[in-house]
Amino acid sequence: MALQLENTDTDSINLPSRKKLLGTAYGMGMNVNNIIGAGIFATPGIVWKQVKSPSIVVLLWTIGGIVSLCGSLIYSELGVIHRESGGETLYLSKAYPRPYQMASYVFSFMFIFIIRPGIICAVLASGAQYAWYAFEGVSPNLTSNGWKSNFEPYWILKLIAIALLLIITSYHMLSNKWANRINHGLTIIKTIMIIIIALSGISKYHNTQNWKKPLESDSESSGLNSYSVAIIEIFFSYNGWNTLNFSLDEFRNPEKRLKLSNTYSVGIVSLLYLMVNVAFITALPQDYIINTNTEDFNETIAADFFLSIFNNRTVARIFSFFVVLSAIGTAATSVWSGSRVIVSAAKSNFFPIFSYELQNWNDYFNTPINALIAQFIWCSFFILIVGSCVEADNFILFTSIAMFSSWIFYIFTSYGLLVTRKRLNYEPKIFLSIITYFFIISGFGIIILSFFFIERSQISYIHNISFILITFISLIVGIFFWFILFYRPHLKDQERREMNNQINTQVRIILAESSKE
Length: 517
What we know:
single chain; globular
């Protein structure tokens, strides 16, 4: 059978015995927490510098919210139709059963090895930069990326990211109960930081010159490549709107409450994101965004924001430390659920050699220690090796890998809704069809824009679109493993069953003839 992804609640291993606890309010809280991540502390500076015009910045974030809302409504409908947890793995399996479970299997492969590690590593890359600011009082000066980069700060930032991942993995290994308590505490810190930023910007309401003219960092206006970078980063910040579909078994009256939870939560997040961007644009002098010496993307924009608000570098360093805690909380959510996905994959014999070890839970700590260790090793490989083989900013590289891969499956899953409804002879819903086609067209737009992605003009085009190459190579590898580890054994089992049926038929014929004699 295809891999069934575990949902992200604490007792996900005992799904059948779980009580249906999620109402609209609790579902909203879960979704808001999963959508709001460390991206909002890094992407506003990137987006502002790329498109230069504050009004266009607000417009793009608004469009991001609208598209994400459409996606959440589509997934709500999928949840109502299937009434099971499982997310894309289940939906792709039902919509595209042939070739036998290929779509579902390849998504599972990409989710475990590319999408989830990309999100974790991107968040940790951002957290590492804020950790640098907290200790040094200035943003790291990354003039180059790749193997030839200086040890300081490039490799130190990588080591910091791995150290943060080690901390997260360690406390998840030691106690499932305390891991959830720590994660909830970090969620509160993240929420408080968002509110402080949004409200602090009001104190600078009189600083309106930034809204009157675009950035003057370049003589030329923003090109298609700039919008490509900005849009990918915006959708990374909105990612997570489909999380509740992995917890569908917990909803009371999912037909109504899932849709309400998704709609309200995306609306709340969109409003908070707009407030944060307005705060940054209003409070920060353009000098904090314009950097004529390097092509830095101002990923530590929140630290610059606090420096501008309080005019005290020590205060900015303290708040940067809390941003690091926020990043840890965001990464911890993915580490927690990611390890459960690996356990689920191992139970489906996704890893033929290591399945038994990866699906085992430690009885003393009640944690999937082996899965957590495997995830730590793979994400460390991502940070050290994959991130260093490309001369690109690590945060942008990892977010681009995760988003490009995710949107390929968002498109197939959304179209799968139309296929499934037609197959089940459901009455057509005009509004649902409109938003589905709008979402699919938006997805194709993001895919096409990705080919015009130019992060830094100094590096080659191949390095700039390396995330596309990594995604397609991974898809090919996933299809290969599907054929070798899943489809071919399925064909052999099918042949064996047919042979047994033939033998049984022949035996029955012989017995029947014998009884006549």
